[in-house]
Specification:
Distance between the termini: 57 Å
Helix content: 40-55%
Oligomer: single chain
Pfam family, one: BSP
Strand content: 5-15%
Protein name: Peptidase of plants and bacteria-domain-containing protein
Shape: globular
Structural class: alpha/beta
Strand order of the largest sheet: 1-2-4-3
């Protein structure tokens, strides 16, 4: 009987250094966090989710992020991420954790995945629509099976493709299913060095983005009233949406 071949070596992704700061250990949200989450494992898992869905192989993954600091503190909203190219900081609301106590573990992991994506995704040198950036982050959350129960796949009749968050995430998920695995990875890659150009959707989806959006709505049985809404507002399209679309969860 031939010997069993050795297992392949584990994939070596460029993981950063992780740190955590809890500003109020007695806060009920801090207690929930520590009861449900192993911080180091959770942050590593969130980074690996970003790498696997946006880069596939270590050779393509960004290596600029040297450290991620997770700050748990009482504050309004959910979470936000900022920092330099090398040092990222995620602020996460302890009050939000309390508000989601019944599903604390999944919500904490979902938010961490979303925010960690912001540490690693490309944004066309800051020129990409804010809703697209948020949608890619929630696409990774969706594909990691960490979407909250209130999310719905079908958009509203007047919703735009770059409304952000779950609306855009489900649209990107549909493109991934329609065009094949790796489509959103290709979209992220296209945002690496060049200024944003909507034509990228013709490359990854074979049609202009607005035609894809109408097709997506039609498949879900959603009436498309976006143009009616744009006329009412004076023609302003989704391009007007900026990074501060929802300043409590970015």
């Amino acid at each position: 009987m031939p010997p069993t071949p050795p297992s392949p070596p584990p994939i070596q992704w460029p993981l950063p250094k992780f740190n955590i700061r809890i500003e109020d250990l007695a806060h009920p949200g801090a207690v929930l966090f520590l009861d449900n989450i192993k911080p180091l494992d959770a942050l590593r898992s969130a980074v690996l989710a970003s790498f696997n869905l946006l880069y596939a192989r270590p050779v393509y993954a960004p290596t600029n992020v040297e450290s991620i600091l997770l700050v748990l503190r009482p504050m309004d909203g959910v979470a936000y991420t900022f920092g330099s190219a090398a040092e990222k900081e995620i602020h996460f609301s302890l009050d939000h954790i309390v508000n989601c106590a019944s599903r604390a573990q999944d919500e904490i992991m979902g938010v961490l995945v979303h925010e960690v994506v912001h540490c690693y995704q490309y944004n066309a040198n800051g020129s990409a629509p804010g809703g697209l950036i948020e949608g890619i982050a929630d696409f990774v959350r969706l594909r990691t099976n960490l979407c909250p129960p209130h999310w719905r796949r079908a958009p509203g009749p007047k919703d735009r493709w770059d409304a952000g968050y779950q609306t855009t995430a489900y649209f990107l998920d549909w493109i991934e299913e329609r065009s094949g695995r790796g489509a959103i990875r290709a979209l992220n890659k296209a945002l690496k060095d060049e200024e944003y150009d909507e034509k990228i959707f013709v490359v990854i989806g074979a049609e202009p983005v607005r035609d894809l959006w109408r097709r997506f709505k039609a498949e879900l049985g959603v009436e498309d009233r976006e143009e009616e809404e744009e006329e009412k507002e004076g023609g302003g399209g989704g391009e007007a949406l900026v990074r501060s679309y929802n300043p409590v969860y970015i």
